[in-house]
Design goal:
Layout (H helix, E strand, L loop, with lengths): L1 H10 L2 H10 L16 H9 L4 H9 L9 H5 L6 H4 L2 E3 L16 E3 L5 H13 L6 H7 L4 H10 L22
Antiparallel strand pairs: 1-2
Helix pairs in contact: 8-9
Length: 176
């Protein structure tokens, strides 16, 4: 029913409205700028193909010498290996097997920790803070005392906290 009403309103006096739009005067186009007889492109095209004798004589005076670069210079400056410069220490702890991709690491530079060693050190400090002090961690893992103190102060191993329910009505997940 609604489409019929819409169609009647849309088609009301359609022919008269169309005739009014068609009979309106059309806007006139803006006047064009008078063009010169030759375009600038044609003038430049002629000048490009002409020979310029003074420039040619100057070009004949130019002499270029070139030599092949040294093969050693192409390689760039030699980079010293880091392993030779820094003393290294053997790993204290590592993951069993090569499932995790850590088996190829056998030693680390002094002053650094592997991921497994860092987690072990943090866990030891968390369980026994009086025994595993930052000074002992620095001595055990060849770390700077300042770095060991920052490690124990700002990093914590994964910790799970279980919050007991407040009322008896809430259900609690139990081990199965």
């Amino acid at each position: 029913m609604g489409s019929r009403v819409t169609r009647l309103i849309r088609n009301f006096n359609l022919e008269n409205r169309a005739q009014r739009e068609i009979s309106k005067t059309k806007p006139t186009a803006a006047p064009r700028h008078p063009a010169s007889s030759r375009s600038p492109r044609e003038e430049l095209a002629g000048e490009i193909h002409l020979k310029n004798d003074p420039l040619l004589s100057m070009l004949k005076d130019v002499y270029v010498e070139s030599k092949d670069p040294d093969p050693q210079a192409e390689a760039g400056p030699e980079v010293k290996k880091v392993e030779e410069e820094t003393p290294r220490r053997a790993l204290k702890y590592s993951l069993p097997g090569d499932h995790y991709g850590f088996c190829d690491v056998t030693d680390v530079p002094k002053g650094k920790l592997s991921l497994v060693e860092a987690l072990t050190a943090l866990n030891n400090h968390k369980r026994l803070p009086k025994t595993w002090t930052p000074e002992k961690l620095a001595q055990e893992y060849s770390l700077d005392p300042k770095d060991a103190k920052a490690l124990t102060e700002f990093f914590f191993p994964f910790d799970i906290k279980i919050i007991p329910p407040k009322t008896e009505e809430t259900q609690q997940i139990k081990d199965s």
